[in-house]
Specification:
Strand order of the largest sheet: 8-11-10
């Protein structure tokens, strides 16, 4: 049996398992699930990696052309066709300095070789048919990794099945159906109308022959610039209509959701009244949180969703800030060494109390019930800003204050948020209910003193929670996302993770609106954007 060398942190004796390896991972406390679930529901058909909406019509056109030219149901043939097309788009985008297109880094390397002609087969597959170190590693390319889910959800493509009811492993555009406003074939036709006959022939010919020259890329750049949509065209109109359509048109529901459309209109309204310096996507979600999901005092279903999103974000940032600050503190006190868990918890608790006293943030002699009423010195946004700019006990302290303030500000809305979550299938597992579960049970903590509250919180919501999440993510594998190790009641740091908000797909929507000439480069409404907003001003 093989033995292992000690200098690689392995064993010389037989070992019944793979050596543990530690990876960065995301969401060390598993608290982003609610936020992810909410924005996935509200922004159906969008994701965080699609910068330009013209990709939607391009892929519809590409799949339609494949069905006309090749017709094969062999998945490999469709993969080959799509990958060559994507590689060409990456090449022409890099050469024409079109930003926001996937695959540009690989294209840049090929241009640095001073090639005059590019081999599309070599750039998309290795000689053994594998894809590592090509323009895109995922077997079905950018389309398969980033777009299939969104295009299916929004009703533009589907996956045909064979006579036995099994998926064929290829994709096709959807056809016109009753009660569906826009299908994939409509969008494919609109894209086709926006490109020249010569450009179309040349593009498809290059796919077929597996070669494209720099001269041909320059000739194709105008037609296949996926960042530019002709302003007064059927393609542009259909893409706007697509965003304003029902979330999931192919699903028959008694009460279909229009939350994507309503979010779009809310954002246009928000931007029309926004005092511009630098707009960021969480300015909108913080607004929804501040108004508690209401418009002129009346509950708005979609704004309520964004209120729940931002509430969940403040919660996960507060706890991740505590988590990060604890580990900063541990590293400062012990470096890579071990510390008893009870000493760790007590040390962090004492330094939080000390910082709060020194800064006169709270009267630490009071119980939690009184302290909740006193957390008024900073707003949630101000606490967030202070938290992300600090570290160690300072960061822990602002995380604690944010935890207390979230209960004070949202207590009366908790049953309402629970109802919204249940009605929209957001709370389908315990992790998706974490923030609501905690605060709905928070009254049991009101009789605690501050020291006991902090110690219990650090032990259960930070230490035990992280261990539970890390082990669950690892499953039966050998890669761990643990940031600290616990052995025999001792703890030592092996990594850390900074707090921050998730990205709720609003950036993607804003980029789509810019491509559709509804917003300018500074996120101000264009004349076309104002025209659209006027149509829905009373909604």
């Amino acid at each position: 049996m093989a033995t292992y060398v000690i200098d690689k942190n392995e064993a010389r004796v037989p070992f019944l398992g793979d050596r543990m390896s530690f990876i960065t991972g995301l969401d060390p406390l598993g608290l982003q699930n609610t936020s992810n679930k909410v924005y996935t529901y509200l922004m159906a058909g969008l994701n965080n990696v699609t910068s330009h909406i013209r990709n939607y019509s391009f892929y519809c056109w590409l799949l339609d052309e494949y069905a006309k030219i090749i017709t094969s149901t062999n998945p490999y043939e469709q993969q080959r066709f799509i990958r060559r097309a994507e590689y060409m788009i990456a090449l022409l985008s890099y050469h024409s300095e079109i930003l926001g297109i996937n695959g540009r880094q690989y294209a840049q390397k090929r241009f640095e070789e001073n090639l005059q002609e590019f081999d599309l087969e070599k750039g998309t597959f290795n000689t053994d048919g594998s894809t590592p170190n090509t323009y895109w590693q995922y077997y079905l390319g950018i389309f398969g990794q980033y777009y299939v889910g969104s295009l299916r959800q929004i009703g533009l493509i589907d996956e045909p099945i064979n006579a036995e009811g099994k998926p064929l492993g290829i994709y096709r555009t959807t056809s016109s159906q009753e009660d569906i406003n826009i299908c994939g074939k409509d969008l494919a036709k609109a894209f086709d109308e926006n490109i020249s006959d010569d450009g179309k022939i040349k593009f498809l010919d290059c796919i077929a022959k597996g070669k494209v020259s720099i001269e041909e890329l320059e000739e194709l750049a105008l037609d296949f610039n996926l960042k530019a949509i002709k302003k007064k065209s059927k393609e542009c109109d259909l893409l706007i209509e697509l965003l304003l359509d029902v979330n999931e048109p192919t699903l028959l529901k008694e009460e279909p959701s229009f939350s994507r459309k309503e979010t779009l209109i809310h954002i246009l309204k928000f931007l029309s009244n926004y005092s511009f310096e630098k707009f960021e996507q969480h300015d909108f979600t913080m607004f929804a949180y501040d108004v508690k999901g209401k418009v002129n005092g009346i509950i708005d279903e979609t704004l309520t969703g964004w209120y729940l999103y931002q509430f969940s974000e403040y919660w996960q940032v507060a706890l991740t800030g505590l988590f990060n600050g604890c580990l900063n503190w541990l590293e400062r006190e012990k470096g890579p060494g071990w510390m008893p868990i009870n000493e760790f918890v007590q040390g962090c608790t004492n330094d939080i109390i000390k910082y709060i006293n020194n800064e006169n943030l709270l009267d630490t002699d009071k119980g939690i019930s009184d302290l909740v009423s006193d957390v008024e010195i900073y707003t949630e946004k101000e606490l967030y800003v202070k938290l992300v700019r600090s570290k160690s006990e300072e960061r822990m302290s602002y995380g604690l204050l944010l935890v207390l303030r979230l209960f004070k500000v949202n207590e009366s809305y908790l049953p309402f948020l629970r109802s919204y979550s249940n009605n929209n299938e957001i709370s389908n597992n315990q992790d998706n209910q974490e923030v609501l579960n905690y605060y709905l049970g928070f009254k049991s903590s009101l009789n605690l003193n501050l020291v006991t509250f902090i110690s219990d919180f650090l032990l259960n919501k930070i230490i035990h929670r992280h261990q539970y999440v890390a082990y669950r993510k690892m499953g039966g594998g050998s890669q761990s996302t643990q940031k600290f190790i616990i052995e025999d009641g001792y703890l030592r740091i092996i990594g850390n993770f900074d707090p921050g908000f998730t990205s709720p797909r609003i950036v993607s929507l804003l980029e789509f609106l810019q491509d559709l000439n509804l917003l300018d480069k500074d996120f101000r409404l264009t004349d076309k954007g104002n025209e659209l907003l006027n149509v829905y001003k009373d909604d």
